[in-house]
Amino acid sequence: MTSTEPAATGTPIAGAASPASAPPPVEPPPAASRPRPKWMRPSLWIPPIALLAVIVAAVYVINAALGTRGFLMPRPEQVLAVYFDPKTGPEIFAALWVSAQVALVGLVFAIILGVLWAITMNLAKWVERTTFPYAVILQSIPILAVVPLIGFWFGYDFFARVVVCVLIALFPMVSTTLFGLQSVDRGMRELFQLQKASRWIVLSKLELPAALPSMFLGMRTSAGLAVVGAVVGDFFFQRGERGIGGLIATYQSRLQAPELFASILVASLFGVVIFLFFGWLGRRAVGKWYDFG
Q1: Which one-letter DSSP state was computed for residue 98?
Q2: Which residues, including other chains, have CB under 8 Å from residue 284's CB and lie 6 or more apart?
Q3: Alpha helices in 124-207 (DSSP H)
Q4: Which residue has the higher pLDDT, 89 or 7?
Q5: Among 160, 162, 168, residue whose Cα is nearest residue 239
Q6: What torsion do the CA atoms of 142, 151, 101, 261 make, to the nearest 10 degrees?
Q7: Other beta carbons less than 10 A from residue 219's beta carbon
Q8: b/e per residue 254-285 (b: at least 16 CB within 10 A)
Q9: What pTM was estimated for this model as a whole?
Q10: What tens digit of pLDDT does each residue of 144-185 get?
Q11: For residues 165 and 223, is the Cβ–Cβ distance under 8 A?
Q12: Every domain of the chain and the residues it spans
């Protein structure tokens, strides 16, 4: 018995595509260019930089116009030299660290107390009617008029400075959190009512998530106010480690203008940094579904 095997030929099988006749590979379409982040847009940075240049130029003009009294408005390079001085540089940053601790501790307490107060007012309307007017009064009272009482009641050390920070930074957290809790979409609230959700479920699953944008706006505002409170507290309560406010008062009494401007500039920059941090934190937390700015 013999087997017949097909002869190998060079003719291609019908229907098979040869390499030469294969269609060229299709190139994927170019990826769509991603929009530039908001913070990288020139329109966001150019105006502040231009204004800074104008301010620096004005400082030089004022310094030259003052003549022998030019020490009242030191030149920018004189202020920058303070940070590199082996004595005043570490002194300023050490005082800033003390004030930063006061501001951060006071901010944490202000956030916790403000959120709890707002939640309580949202759960019980009689609490809101009873206590919210006092929150407004607390915000309206000049803090400088209350500071002596704080020292009389709480002493003149670290804790008294924290109390000042809390009093200054508390109201924005209360007002913005309460606004967020009470601004829930009516349709969503009615949907939860149709499902017979408990008050705790409505608070935890609907009202608190909806209030997050307002809460982060309040944190950003309270963060800047906490720095102000720390500096104010340093001015009045100088027992213990000296903060940046106490250092500013010392330089003022000695007419050390470059050191005074350097201290003010550092305190201001710290306030800006903590303000921007909470803005970044808010964008990370709720920026995907809310234009936090």
Answers
A1: H
A2: none
A3: 125-140, 143-154, 158-182, 186-194, 199-201
A4: 89
A5: 160
A6: 60
A7: 27
A8: eebbbbbbbbbbbbeebbeebbeebbebbbee
A9: 0.78
A10: 888 888 888 888 888 889 999 999 999 999 999 999 998 888
A11: no
A12: 89-286
| Cα dist from 136 to 41, 49, 87, 140, 284, whole Å | 39, 37, 44, 6, 31
User: pLDDT (tens digit, 9 = 90+) per residue, 74-122?
Assistant: 989 989 999 998 899 999 999 999 999 999 999 999 999 999 999 999 9
Among the residues of 184-256, which ranges form H helices?
186-194, 199-201, 208-236, 244-253
Cα distance between residue 134 and residue 150, in whole Å: 18
Handedness of CA 49, 53, 54, 56 (dihedral sign): positive
Per the CB < 8 A criterion, the answer to whether 220 and 280 are in contact is no
CA 223, CA 164: separation in Å to the nearest integer? 13
Q: By C-alpha distance, which of 274, 223, 270 is closest to 93?
A: 270
Tokens of 276: 């921007």
Residues counted in the chain: 293
According to CATH, the topology of domain 89-286 is: MetI-like fold (1.10.3720)
Position of tokens 């329109």? 43
d(C-alpha 156, C-alpha 87), whole Å: 27
As given in the structure block, the two tokens for residue 64 are: 């030259």
Q: What is the DSSP letter of 207?
A: I
